[in-house]
Every structure is written in C-alpha cells, then in structure tokens.
Write a structure and sequence with these properties.
This protein is α/β, with parallel strands linked by helices. The chain has a single domain, classed as TIM Barrel (Alpha-Beta Barrel). It is built from 13 helices and nine strands. Strands 1, 2, 3, 4, 5, 6, 7, 8 and 9 form a nine-stranded parallel sheet that branches. Strand 5 (about 180-185), helix 8 (about 190-205) and strand 6 (about 210-215) form a beta-alpha-beta unit. The relative contact order is 0.18. It binds iron/sulfur cluster. Iron/sulfur cluster (SF4) binds near residues 55 and 290.
Length: about 325
C-alpha cells in the first residue's frame, strides 16, 4: 500500500474510521498472528543531560528525585525477568553519560547468555557505538523521532535536530539492530499533516517497531498547561501504521494506558501486537516520569502473570 501524505491526512480526518480499524486488525492477524508479544521494561536511570520541553526527566526539572541502578542490579533484574517468562527485556534510561557504551555493552554481554532478547533505549550515540552494541549482542534499539516536523522538533528539543535524530535511526538500522521508532500524538503545534508525515517517516526509516502514544503534559515542564493528545487519534495512527508497515511490532504504549485504560485494550483490535510491562524496581517505578503516572506495586512474576491474564481476556495469546 502506497499512501501519500495527502491521502493519509484525509484518512486521519475521516468521520467514520471503523472500516480502517477492521482492515488493520485483519492485516495484523494475517501478518503477525494472534499473539501479543510481552516486553519487560526496565527503566534504570532517570538522569538525562537533555532538556526536551515535554519530558519530566529533562535536566532542568529540579523537582524530580533522581535515581540510577548499578549495572549489577540491572543484569540481575533482567535475569529475573527471563526467569519469570519474558523473552525480551527493554533497558531504558534518559541520556545518562554515567553509563558509557562500554558499561552498556558489558551489561548486554552478561544478560544475553540467558536467552532473553535485549532492546536498548538510551538515546543518541555515534555510528560506531551502535555497531558496538550490536557486537555485544543487543538485538534491538528504540529511538523515537517524536515529530517529523523539523521546526516543531527544534522547538521541543533545544539540544538536537530532527536531522541528527533520523541520522541516528539510520545508523541503528545499518548496525543490524532491529529499529524501533515512534512519535507522539497531540504535541502542541502538531497537525494531521504532521502525523501523516510521521507515519511516512516510520516507513522511510524501515522501522521494525513503532511506539505511537499520546502526548501527556507533565506539571514540571514548560508544556504543563498544554492539552493532552487524543486517544482516538492515537488509535487511528496505530491502525494506519499497521497498514503501512504490515509486519511491524506495534505496542499499545504505556502512555495510552495512562490516558485511557479502555482504549489501551481497544488498540489491540486495530493493529497493535505488543505490550510493555514494567519490571523496574518498585521504589523507582514512579520516578521515571516522562509524563505523570503512578504504577501499582507488583513484583516481576506477579506482573507477568497479570499481563498474561489480561492478554487471554482479550482472546489473544501471550508470547
Ligand atoms: S525525552 Fe528522552 S532525551 Fe529528552 S529529556 Fe526525556 S529522557 Fe531525556
């Protein structure tokens, strides 16, 4: 399917989207089956050197209590996730120079023999560093472009450019890592045309996975008074992403669940096939505040059990 930008914009604006939701659901079943892939998400540091204007982790937020896990605890938690049945661990952090490429690579080397796939999501690195992560055994790298509008991007990210971001995504792809991208719905200044561009950029990069979630304003950021993104529009974008990238892994993002738990379930019937479950130690879970949220107290095996039950209740198969 080759949808140009104008067609995508028109589709996003449709009054009745049900036919496209159904097409996306059918395509999802044909291409990736009825399983929902569960990813363990370990947030290991909320320090960040950047100052993205929408994010609670930005270095100019003095109110956030900061934490870092030591590499040994990160490895131990990843192994506990494997033990509980997870087949992928996502290691996520702000851009925290404390964890050098060597430290990150060493953690991957220690985790991989357990048989769990490792996704890194730690921000921007050089071409050589992404290659090094692959050599150490990392399977995937997640780096969202957030918005495909260069001016909007520059306004939201004082420390970088869209061009630089996309270059990093190309390096990730070139390094042989499965490439995860994604963007936000409802950023102030975003239009349906921007979202059409976001969807096309996912395809242009050749994303193997794409996280599309609503913008949620954080009270300790410059965007505190902005309205949150729409859950309905997020679902529409996920459905169109399925049509554009038939075999991609598309998560129901945590942000969508925070905005609307019901819609998080519905997104599985319009193209999504992945769910993230936090395995971050309880004392840190609520400090990883890209957007404001609070998460229930549950240990790793219990969290796995609950997410499997939720998947079965949707008539799908946990993987
Ligand atoms: S969005 Fe990422 S890079 Fe930007 S401040 Fe937040 S954690 Fe840091």
């Amino acid at each position: 399917m080759d949808k140009n930008r104008e067609q995508l914009r028109e589709l996003l604006a449709r009054e009745d989207f049900s036919e496209i939701f159904e097409r996306a659901d059918t395509l999802r079943r044909e291409q990736v089956g009825d399983t929902i892939r569960v990813r363990a998400l370990l947030e290991f540091s909320n320090y960040c050197r950047r100052s993205c204007r929408y994010c609670g982790l930005n270095c100019r937020n003095p109110k956030l209590e900061r934490f870092r896990l030591e590499p040994a605890e990160i490895v131990e938690t990843a192994l506990a996730a494997r033990e509980a049945g997870y087949r992928t661990i996502v290691l996520q952090s702000g851009e925290d120079p404390y964890y050098t490429p060597e430290i990150l690579g060493e953690m991957v080397r220690k985790i991989k023999p357990s048989g769990i796939a490792v996704t890194l999501s730690c921000g921007e690195f050089s071409r050589e560093e992404y290659r090094y992560f692959r050599e150490c055994g990392a399977d995937r790298y997640l780096l969202k472009h957030e918005t495909s509008d260069p001016n909007l991007y520059a306004g939201l990210h004082p420390d970088s450019t869209l061009e630089q971001r996309v270059q990093c995504q190309r390096y990730i792809k070139e390094a042989g890592l499965e490439t995860g991208g994604g963007f936000m719905i409802g950023l102030p200044g975003q239009t349906l045309d921007t979202i059409a561009g976001d969807l096309l950029l996912l395809r242009e990069i050749g994303c193997d996975m794409a996280g599309i979630g609503p913008f949620l304003p954080h009270p300790d950021t410059p965007l505190r008074d902005a309205a949150h993104g729409s859950a309905q529009l997020t679902m529409r974008a996920v459905a169109l992403a399925r049509l554009l990238l038939p075999r991609a892994n598309l998560p129901a993002t945590t942000a969508l669940g925070v905005l609307d738990a019901k819609e998080k379930r519905s997104v599985f019937s319009c193209g999504a096939n992945v769910i993230m479950q936090k395995v971050t130690p309880q004392r840190m879970k609520n400090l990883y505040q890209i957007y404001p949220a609070s998460f229930e107290e549950v240990d790793i095996p219990e969290g796995r059990k609950r997410v499997e039950q939720e998947i079965v209740s949707l008539g799908r198969i946990p993987e």
